[in-house]
Amino acid sequence: xxxxxxxxxxxxxxxxxxxxxxxxxxxxxxxxxxxxxxxxxxxxxxxxxxxxxxxxxxxxxxxxxxxxxxxxxxxxxxxxxxxxxxxxxxxxxxxxxxxxxxxxxxxxxxxxxxxxxxxxxxxxxxxxxxxxxxxxxxxxxxxxxxxxxxxxxxxxxxxxxxxxxxxxxxxxxxxxxxxxxxxxxxxxxxxxxxxxxxxxxxxxxxxxxxxxxxxxxxxxxxxxxxxxxxxxxxxxxxxxxxxxxxxxxxxxxxxxxxxxxxxxxxxxxxxxxxxxxxxxxxxxxxxxxxxxxxxxxxxxxxxxxxxxxxxxxxxxxxxxxxxxxxxxxxxxxxxxxxxxxxxxxxxxxxxxxxxxxxxxxxxxxxxxxxxxxxxxxxxxxxxxxxxxxxxxxxxxxxxxxxxxxxxxxxxxxxxxxx
Length: 418
Prior knowledge:
By secondary structure, the protein is of the alpha+beta class. Helices cover 58% and strands 11% of the residues. It is built from 16 helices and eight strands. It has helices at residues 10-17, 19-54, 59-72, 75-84, 93-127, 138-161, 165-172, 176-182, 184-199, 243-246, 253-258, 279-285, 289-308, 322-336, 371-388, 402-417; strands at residues 207-210, 215-222, 226-231, 236-240, 250-251, 261-269, 347-350, 358-366. The strands form two sheets. Strands 4-3-2-1-5 form a five-stranded antiparallel sheet, with no helix packed on it. Strands 6-8-7 form a three-stranded antiparallel sheet. A hairpin with a 4-residue loop joins strand 1 and strand 2. Helix 2 packs antiparallel against helix 4 (75-84) and helix 5 runs antiparallel to helix 6. The longest helix is centred in the first third of the chain and has 36 residues, at 19-54. The protein is rod-shaped, with a radius of gyration of 41 Å.
């Protein structure tokens, strides 16, 4: 070796012949080879692959595949360094083992990240299916990632310690209780995700209501640990997935699928305004086209019953009432509206009277589930009923206000002066 370098100066010969310099030159050459291999993989092979993928009919998937391959290309220089570090002269055995362990750990981490990207691609492809919103797999993908990174962590630790991974796995049995405590929420969420998916309890796009979490809106995301709900005020509520199993919530999907939304609201009538109809009332109400058939049929039925019982015009006779006639008008009016579903339950019922008046409740279904049109239909119906109440001699009940008391005192003072 000395004869070959005799043409060099003595100082340079000594430097080159030193073990440190030879090791440094070998490491530099190995690093250069690794860099060239990485450059060829990314600048030539990867670009050619991306051009091929660009001609596929699915450009988004091609982009995902390209990023996965780009991540995997980082393995090549690590493999070269791992294989060539043993050829570096004068390098301590401990350093060789450390470099090989670090390269192995890097390769394992890179593969884990690439597989995670592949799982994301699988989830994206699944979400494009027509029925993907009904049975999302995002929770299962997150479980697969958790298992993947857990396995990668064990393999990386084993590689850095230069020990068999089975040796580490044998020690996990003693840590089972600790793992159960650490991953308690994850295990609960995994079980809840399986139950939610198998029982079809919640889908993305469902309107759910969960007052204990102040959630009232549409489900926008179902993940392993959380379910995100966008409330109608545009705020986001995050609910732990397992709480959907532990606690009750309301899902309005059935209403949306039925095509109709329920109207259940009552009008409270002043009970002091309830009375029998007289002849003038009968003539006045006969003007309503919706009541003509009812009045005729009801009058004939009452006369037949009174005649069969031998009852004439006395207190025992059956007679029409203004509130019963108004209830019949409400029902006929609802049936005449095109925006009220006629194939669903339609009732106008009288509830128990109380100190707040006599409630007449409407139980019907609008033929739309959209919030705005539904509220307009409901408001139009009650606007009409409230405005037409005086035609039946009925009054709406409401608590006395300051104006009512002032008017009463004014009338009282007027009578005293007179």
